[in-house]
């Protein structure tokens, strides 16, 4: 039996840099200052930092950290890799307090690390529409936390953050922090993320009624009548898949993270979306999931203190 965490890049700094370089520079070093790939050499010497290169086109030194979430960080690269693996392999997440104890760093550093890894998990650029080729997409909302400065109101969710999640059956998940549950809040997100041939499945919430007509089909279950699934031939109408996503999300947010400020919620959503969309059922194991998160570190540097 061999532990995944016994791999050399988790314990040796040079091996850690080599591991990251192999994934971010598959064709060799690339200068982050001028974009050059020629006339680059590795700097040697006892006083030279591990992993330092020099570009003789722009005459500037650099490491693989430049332009990534690792930039300007004094955290050893091997500890970054350990944290990435722990966060991507823990189904319900791992708290900053736990990272602080496991890595032997300060709580402030653990918080710094975890938020930047969440940023690496965030999908960037244009994403393909969900529900292509007539696949089923389930949509639902949930409510979590408390809006800053908002007192508890008459409505059960008036003081809470609203989250909308789209889950393609047998596929990925996308979650959004939205302002409310009305048509104006929900419709733009569905239009931007779903293919027109998608089969949309929701509950009876009024926000889906009009926009649902724009897709190949729209079916709804009525939770107020204790209806959670029904069958029309081979078609299963339910929102149980997205409810299953929320069961993991809420256990993580309440049991592991416990509290989340509104301005950071989108990163926590990215974290849970990432793990769900790269799960074992889709052929992605813990090692492959950590590798994918590592490839997402480029161009996502956070330059403000997330504790503010």
Salient structural properties:
308 residues, alpha+beta, five-stranded mixed β-sheet, 8 helices
How would you describe the shape? Answer: elongated
**What would CATH call the class of one domain?**
Alpha Beta
Count of individual helical segments = 8
- Biggest sheet architecture: 5 strands, mixed
Radius of gyration: 22 Å
- From N to C, what is the helix and strand string? HEEEHHHEEEHEEEEHHH
Shape-level CATH architecture of one domain:
2-Layer Sandwich
Structural class: alpha+beta
Helix content: 25-40%
Q: Say how many strands there are.
A: 10
Average pLDDT value? 93
- Identify the strand order in the major beta sheet: 6-5-4-7-8
End-to-end separation in angstroms reads 44 Å
List low-pLDDT spans: none
As a percent range, the share of strand residues is: 15-25%
CATH-defined topology of one domain:
Nucleotidyltransferase, domain 5
């Amino acid at each position: 039996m061999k532990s995944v965490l016994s791999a050399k890049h988790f314990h040796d700094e040079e091996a850690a840099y080599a591991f990251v370089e192999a994934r971010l520079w598959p064709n060799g070093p690339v200068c982050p200052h001028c974009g050059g790939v020629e006339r680059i050499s590795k700097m040697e010497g006892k006083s030279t930092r591990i992993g330092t290169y020099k570009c003789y086109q722009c005459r500037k030194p650099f490491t693989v950290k430049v332009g990534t979430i690792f930039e300007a960080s004094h955290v050893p690269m091997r500890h970054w890799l350990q944290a990435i693996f722990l966060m991507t392999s823990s189904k319900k997440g791992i708290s900053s307090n736990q990272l602080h104890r496991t890595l032997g760093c300060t709580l402030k550093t653990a918080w710094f690390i975890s938020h930047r890894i969440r940023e690496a998990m965030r999908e960037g650029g244009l994403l393909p529409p969900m529900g292509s080729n007539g696949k089923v997409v389930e949509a639902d909302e949930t409510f979590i936390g408390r809006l800053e400065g908002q007192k508890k109101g008459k409505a059960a969710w008036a003081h809470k953050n609203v989250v909308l999640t789209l889950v393609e059956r047998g596929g990925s998940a996308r979650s959004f922090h939205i302002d409310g549950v009305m048509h104006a809040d929900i419709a733009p997100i569905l239009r931007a993320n779903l293919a027109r041939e998608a089969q949309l499945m929701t509950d009876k919430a009024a926000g889906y009624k009009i926009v649902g007509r724009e897709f190949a089909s729209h079916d709804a279950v009525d939770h107020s009548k204790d209806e959670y699934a029904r069958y029309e031939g081979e078609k299963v109408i339910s929102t149980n898949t997205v409810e299953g996503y929320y069961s993991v999300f809420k256990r993580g947010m309440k049991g592991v993270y416990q509290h989340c400020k509104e301005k950071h919620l989108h990163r926590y959503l990215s974290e849970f979306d990432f793990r769900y969309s790269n799960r074992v059922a889709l052929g992605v194991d813990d090692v492959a999931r950590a590798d994918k998160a590592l490839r997402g570190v480029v161009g996502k540097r956070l330059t403000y203190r997330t504790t503010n």
